[in-house]
Amino acid sequence: MIRPEAMITYYIVILIILAIPYVIGSVYISVVWHLARVVSVLEETYGLKAMKKSKTLIKGKIWIASAIFVMFQILISVLLMVFNMLVVHGESIGMVGRVSLGIFCFLLLTILIHFALVTQTIIYFVCKSYHDENIDKS
User: Fold this and answer.
1) SS3 129
2) Within a 10 A sphere around the Cβ of 49, how many other Cβ atoms?
3) Which of 26, 40, 72, 73 is within CB 3.0–4.6 Å of 50 for a Cys-Cys bond?
4) Average confidence (pLDDT) over 65-92
5) Which one of 14-23, 38-47, 57-66 scores highest in mean pLDDT?
6) From its phi and psi, is residue 60 left (phi > 0), alpha (psi between -120 and 50) or beta?
7) CB-neighbour burial class of residue 65 (10 A; exposed 0-12, middle 13-18, buried 19+)
C-alpha cells in the first residue's frame, strides 16, 4: 500500500510535468496571437493568414518576444493584485483613499496597455528586419 504522503508527492510531480508544456504552449500561442494583431493592422492579411505570417515572423526572436510578453503579464497581474487587495478589499484605507487608488491603478493599467501595444509593434518591425523583409515606411 502506498503512503498518502507519497501519493501527494506523486500528484504534485505529475502536475508540474503537465504544467510546464502547458505554460510554454500558452506563451507561444499568445505571442503569435499578439503579433498577428499587429500584422492584421499593418498589412493586408487577416485571420489565419495573419497567424501564419506572425508565426513565420517570430522565428528567431521567439525568446525575446516571450520574455517581453511574460514581463508584461507579470506587471499586469501585480497591478491587478494590488487593486484587488487595496481597492476591493482595503477597508482600512477609507472610501476616498480607495477611490483615489482605484483611479491611480486604472491610469497605470491604461499606460501599461498602451506601452504593451507599442512594444508589440516594435517587435513586429524587429522581426521583419530580422527576416530582411521590406518595411513599408508610409
Assistant:
1) helix
2) 14
3) 40
4) 91
5) 14-23
6) left
7) buried
Contacts of 114 (CB under 8 A, 6+ apart): none
d(CA 127, CA 134): 11
Q: Is the pLDDT of residue 61 over 90?
A: no
Instruction: Output the pTM of the full model.
Output: 0.79
Euclidean distance between the first and the last CA atom of the chain, given in angstroms as a whole number: 72
Question: Are the C-beta atoms of 36 and 51 separated by less than 8 Å?
Answer: yes
Over the stretch 87-134, which tens digit does the pLDDT of each residue have? 888 778 888 889 999 999 999 999 999 999 999 999 999 888 888 887
Running DSSP on this structure, what letter comes out for residue 87? I
In angstroms, the CA 36 to CA 46 distance is 8
Q: Which amino acid is at 31?
A: V
